[in-house]
Amino acid sequence: MVDSPPTIYDVAKRAGVSIATASRALNSLASVRPSTRAKVLAAMDELEFVPNMVARGLSSGKHWILGLVYMRSVDDGNVLGVEEASLLYTDIVIRGAESRAAELGYSLLLSSADENHPSGMSSLLRLTGSVDGLILLDRVIGEQDVAFIARRIPVVLLAGKGDSESAITIRVDNEQAMRSLAEHLVSVHGYQRIGFVAGASESPDSDARVHALRDALRQRGATLNENDILDADWTSAGGESAMRERLARGGPLPEAFVCANDQMAIGVVYALNAGGFKVPDDVAVTGFDDIALTRYFSPPLTTIRQSGAMLGEVAVDALVATFNGTEDIARTIVLPTELVVRASCGCTTDTASPGDARGGSTMVIEGERT
Amino acid sequence: MVDSPPTIYDVAKRAGVSIATASRALNSLASVRPSTRAKVLAAMDELEFVPNMVARGLSSGKHWILGLVYMRSVDDGNVLGVEEASLLYTDIVIRGAESRAAELGYSLLLSSADENHPSGMSSLLRLTGSVDGLILLDRVIGEQDVAFIARRIPVVLLAGKGDSESAITIRVDNEQAMRSLAEHLVSVHGYQRIGFVAGASESPDSDARVHALRDALRQRGATLNENDILDADWTSAGGESAMRERLARGGPLPEAFVCANDQMAIGVVYALNAGGFKVPDDVAVTGFDDIALTRYFSPPLTTIRQSGAMLGEVAVDALVATFNGTEDIARTIVLPTELVVRASCGCTTDTASPGDARGGSTMVIEGERT
DNA sequence: GTGTACTTTGTAAGCGGTTACATCGCGCAC
DNA sequence: GTGCGCGATGTAACCGCTTACAAAGTACAC
User: Fold this and answer.
1) What is the 3 state secondary structure string of B94-123?
2) Which positions in strand D are less than 7 Å from the protein's CB atoms?
3) Residues B181 and B299 in one domain
4) How far is B222 from chain A (nearest CA, A)?
5) Residue B150 belongs to domain with CATH number
6) Which of A334, B99, B118, B184 has the least C-beta neighbours within 10 A?
7) Is B59 inside any structural domain?
8) Mean local confidence (pLDDT), A291-319
9) Is residue B56 part of a domain?
10) Does residue A291 share a domain with residue A327?
11) Is the minimum CB–CB distance between A293 and chain B shorter than 8 Å?
């Protein structure tokens, strides 16, 4: 059922030329007489020849493959019906990356790193020989290991801590996002006491968001309730149970909960409703990401829009740029975010075409080292 | 900044053995004296040697990579804020596949086929030399092309038309799903006239679902309104606008709309609300997939649960089984679905822990050819 | 001590391409 | 007619690893 496919030797023989000429014709190099070229191409056609990318990669060192590595939480996808952690956003990034890669002629090699499995590093290293560059999502490995890998192939860090000596870093502007959110909550709604729902522990994005929010609130004379920083795990189920626990704990609620992503916000709203609280009348809730479905929720979610697809695309662009030597290494790129005001913060919006008031920031390239 | 990494030659030299011995030690083959083996491994350690998988693949024919190809709709991910078509479900499949592949030691090579770009076939063929097997999602290419590729490497079709002479097909039990849904809508709620919201045109899954629904309703004395088969595109925005158009057209609505997936159901509910109809009081709506967020909607969505992750896992398993010669080729595997009754069909549920009444089917292996 | 049968190790030929370098033909100026 | 230069093609080495086959080493029985 599986034949062994024709090689360039077969093609050369059939066309009556040497494999060097066949190779040149295949790569449409100059210095091949048009008539010869035609002969070779005809032979390829007849034999249904497909160049073997692995052999080509071994010999030329160019694989036309980009690696993308993301974190997988322990039980992800193993249990029927369990909510998949951090789904959605990561996937959008992946899609963006894949689609851009395809445009540029690359494929994407996906690889997940189990978060409590240190063997991830060795499988990462293994990729090193098969791909032309690596995109690492959200703190897959430590800076030291990044440096080690980056000595072998170009690396782009996505949503990492924000700085790396050895790799290009691309992240979203969490600071600007939290500033505009704080501005809105404080100035427009007059909220003074705010809570936060965090993603997975040690996630750089989640961390950056708390810190930025704390600063932004402080600057505006409001406060982040340290006791109302709830630990969840990026999932709506996690958001729901974190909020249930908070309610069980009792005590006065803050006027608003800022959530580190939309899924958790949805879970939080659900738990609040279940506990007898109306959103936004009793407590306001905001999200982050602006995933497609949030606008269909009730109340429609006020959130921060970031383009995961763009993150992925920019990552691929940056990587490919390093191949061409176009880009300086160790650059940090910060992508813009946009405040999307809908109803869950307490604003009233036109229900017919939900929430599109915005307060944005622009794309910033933060610095260049050599 | 990028050194050329050590090869097995360097290792061999350092350990004072031949490359053959180094290779044997690397692959922990028998017939290597323990002391020699130790020497070699020590050398590998000192040099930070990482085997080059490409060279290994070229020489052994085994790449430890599985290809997964999916459809990308035209504008997917290109426009900031545009809803990503068919997101979620496909991604869950991808995650399931990746996670299972990783368990078995494989990586996943992602590749999307642009739906109106016929060059997809050639890029698919290119993969043929780099991967050990291919998973094709939802009608990426025609049967003839499948056959062509399957002559070169093993192929698994996911959610395809359901039968292929040349490849293993894995799909979800749309018939059983629609039967239990029809049963519920007709017997429990007494609905007689039903509408349908379809996914992308020519999608085998969407098609199978309409047909199965039509049959199932007919058998129970109810009817699928042919004029209420709305064409959408798997997205909630698509569902919303399809329903808006339907409402604009006027005429009496059916008692229920069955949607080919959850996202569209959410859009449909939104449009119905906007049009002044209450769900489920005026019109019932059901979904398909049971994506994580649906249970947090209001009303919580009655839907069909299928495990995308399992689809992905089973696909990988089937592929790997063919490598081992364990599996007969051209087998069709049908995965079970489960009716999840929540509120959008008109049932009332416990709001505290939403909807888990079920009517399932079991895993079926449909046939074996040789 | 020598022969036999294993084990352990080495040599070298691929795997399917790319590419440096050598070779061949041919047109053209002299 | 000879020599030169250049474009078109061929030869063979190489990319880093696996593996068939040959060779060498070891152990044991005689």
Assistant:
1) HHHHHHHHHHCCCEEEEEEEECCCCCHHHH
2) 7-12, 14-20
3) yes
4) 31
5) 3.40.50.2300
6) B118
7) no
8) 90
9) no
10) no
11) yes
Q: Print the domain residue range for B16.
A: 8-51
Kindly list the residues from chain A whose CB atom is less than 8 angstroms away from the CB atom of residue B52.
58, 129
Q: For nucleic chain D, which protein residues have CB less than 7 Å from any of its atoms?
A: A 16-21, 24, 30-33, 35-36, 55, 58-59; B 4, 7-9, 19-20, 23-24, 26-27, 49, 51-52, 55-56, 58-60
Could you tell me if B212 and B96 lie in one domain?
no
A positions 35-64 inside 8 Å of B (CB): 50-55, 57-58, 63
B10: nt with nearest C1' to CA? D16
- Can you tell me the mean pLDDT for B137-147? 82
Q: Could you give the CA distance from residue B85 to residue B72 in angstroms, rounded to a whole number?
A: 8
Judge whether B274 lies within some domain. yes
User: B178-224: per-residue pLDDT in tens?
Assistant: 999 999 999 999 999 999 999 887 788 899 999 999 999 999 999 99
CB contact under 8 Å between B76 and A95, yes or no, is: yes
pLDDT value of residue A275: 95
In 3D space, the residue among A62, A53, A5 whose CA is nearest the CA of residue A26 turns out to be A53
Is there a contact between B260 and B196 (Cβ–Cβ < 8 Å)?
A: yes
Tell me how far the alpha carbon of residue A139 is from its chain's centroid: 11
B 156-215: CB under 8 A from A: none
Which stretches of B48-112 are DSSP H helices?
53-60, 89-103
Cβ contacts of A72 on chain B, cutoff 8 Å: 95, 98-99, 102
**A104 located within any domain:** yes
B329 close contact with A: CB closer than 8 A: yes
CATH number of the structural domain spanning residue B17: 1.10.260.40
pLDDT tens by residue, B35-54: 889 999 999 999 999 999 99
Q: Are residues A189 and A267 in the same domain?
A: yes
Q: Residue-wise over B243-270: b if at least 16 C-beta within 10 A, else e?
A: bbebbeeeeebbbbbbbbbbbbbbbbbb
Same domain, B161 and B182: no
Q: Residue B323: closest CA among chain A residues belongs to which residue?
A: A2
The answer to whether residues A223 and A236 belong to one domain is yes
Spanning CA of B30 to C1' of C13, the rounded length in angstroms is 23
Q: What pTM did the predictor assign?
A: 0.88
pLDDT in tens, A181-228: 999 999 999 999 999 999 887 788 899 999 999 999 999 999 999 999
Distances (CA, A) of A316 to A106, A337, B117: 9, 19, 22
User: Are residues B290 and B193 located together in one domain of the fold?
Assistant: yes
- Residue A268, SS3? helix
- Number of domains chain B is built from: 3
> Looking at the complex, does the CB of residue A307 fall below 8 Å from at least one CB of chain B?
yes
Do the Cβ atoms of B304 and B184 come closer than 8 Å? no
